[in-house]
Amino acid sequence: MSKAILVIGATGNQGGAVLRALLDNPSFSPETYTIYAVTRNPSSRFAKALAAKSPAIKLVAGDLNDVPAIFQSLPSHPWGVFSVQPRGKEEITQGKAIVDEAVKAGVSHFVYTSVDRGGPASDTTPTNVPHFMSKHEIEQYLRDAAAKPSANMTYTILRPVFFLDNLEGGYVGKVIATAWRDHIPVEKKMQVIAASDIGWFGASAFLSASSPDYRNAAISLAGDNLTFSEADLTYQKETGLAIPTTFAFVASSLVSMVKGVGLMFTFMRTQEGGADIARLRRMNPELKTMQSWAAGLSLAKKFRERKN
């Protein structure tokens, strides 16, 4: 009988990365694993494209404001759950509800993606950043739930740092890149991670759930550590273009007027990333650096074609 893994946010950035990493792993097969891919609209083009990737993927319509309904709609009890929630006022309620339903369903392994708050210090450091605090509270709730003898559930907490994918462009990405450029000291290095690597570690947490690396473990995730200038120079070498940015006043307005964003950039200005990149690279030798991530962009491929 195959093990079923419930992936919350399967068409999103992190959930989608976990799903793709599961499919790409040699240990994965439709005979041994089934993926329940939760999406708001199974009829959407993105959901259909997702389902077409493998017969192991079963689309599940779900709204995180009604988590019990998601679990009740599943054809069988899941063996594993991948949990991620959008930041906002419902984040804590949704995150805790997923933990509760997982325990009720007899889930064996639970993977929760949170945020780094200083490596091992993240355990006891909620910070004053609102969405960091929310994730810390969900982490503690998960730990407490898994510690109950009746749960019989292990967990892995993934704590990514700044997403490299923020630098791909688009309005939000340009604002975030501009804020890094203008609101982090020029000499300050910042740890970064590719979403695809979050997916790799998420998939590995399921496929190696009994390993000491993942069993009841919390792992801060990063693949590189560099200044904005170093990141921009690397991006230019690979794509022929500067990192996409926008008007300075747009980013400044966001940082100064939106309390949570301002607090987050204050934290990034004053604190160091806590990921042990050397250890992570031993676990995943293909862990992406800024250079290898940028080299994989479509812009970089077009740039190489033009040069040739």
Keywords:
alpha/beta
- Proportion of residues in extended strands: 15-25%
The neighbouring-strand order within the major sheet is 3-2-1-4-5-6-9
From N to C, what is the helix and strand string? EHEHEHEHEHEEHEHEEHHHHHH
Mean pLDDT: 95
**How would you describe the shape?**
globular
Total count of helical runs of at least 4 residues: 13
Give the end-to-end Cα distance, rounded to a whole number of Å: 51 Å
**How many individual β-strands?**
10
Structure explained in plain terms:
With 308 residues, the protein is α/β, with parallel strands linked by helices. The protein has 13 helices and 10 strands. The protein has helices spanning 13-24, 45-51, 67-72, 91-104, 130-147, 170-183, 195-207, 228-239, 248-257, 259-270, 277-283, 290-295, 298-307, and strands at 3-7, 33-39, 57-61, 80-83, 109-113, 154-160, 162-163, 190-193, 217-221, 224-226. The strands form 2 sheets. A 7-stranded parallel β-sheet has the order 3-2-1-4-5-6-9, with helices on both faces. The longest helix is centred in the middle third of the chain and has 18 residues, at 130-147.
